[in-house]
Design a protein that fits this description.
The chain has about 110 residues and is an all-alpha fold. It has a single domain, classed as Adp-ribosylation factor-like protein 2-binding protein fold. Helix content is about 55%, strand content about 0%. It is built from four helices and no strands. It starts with 15 loop residues before the first helix and ends in a 23-residue tail after the last helix.
């Protein structure tokens, strides 16, 4: 993200470079997931897994399915980069300024 966030703008129009970065990101995520699964299950094959997901999508918990889909969703990807850019440039409000931490109990012995 550090390498590419400067390309992103919080605008409706998308730049061509977003597609290139998105493709790199997608390959990186897919490789990471595949590598992690192979370390846990040496017989794992991504192609078989993808076919199984497609044929059994009605059996997958909706939240898990949404998370998996979000990794390859362009708008989610763009939002992530725009948010990251705002944070890097200090354009996100610091909500910690108004926070006060108060103990639930005045006891000092933890009871």
């Amino acid at each position: 993200m550090d390498e590419h966030y400067h390309h992103f703008e919080d605008e409706e129009e998308n730049k061509f470079i977003y597609t290139n970065i998105f493709n790199l990101y997608t390959k990186l995520i897919e490789k990471h997931i595949e590598d992690e699964l192979k370390t846990r299950m040496p017989e794992f094959a991504m192609e078989s897994f993808m076919k199984s997901l497609e044929s059994r999508k009605d059996e997958i918990d909706l939240e898990i399915f949404d998370i998996l889909v979000s990794f390859t969703d362009f708008l989610t990807f763009k939002e992530m980069f725009v948010s990251y850019k705002k944070a890097k440039e200090g354009k996100v409000p610091d909500l910690s300024l108004g926070l006060t931490i108060t103990p639930l109990s005045s006891s000092t012995n933890g009871h």
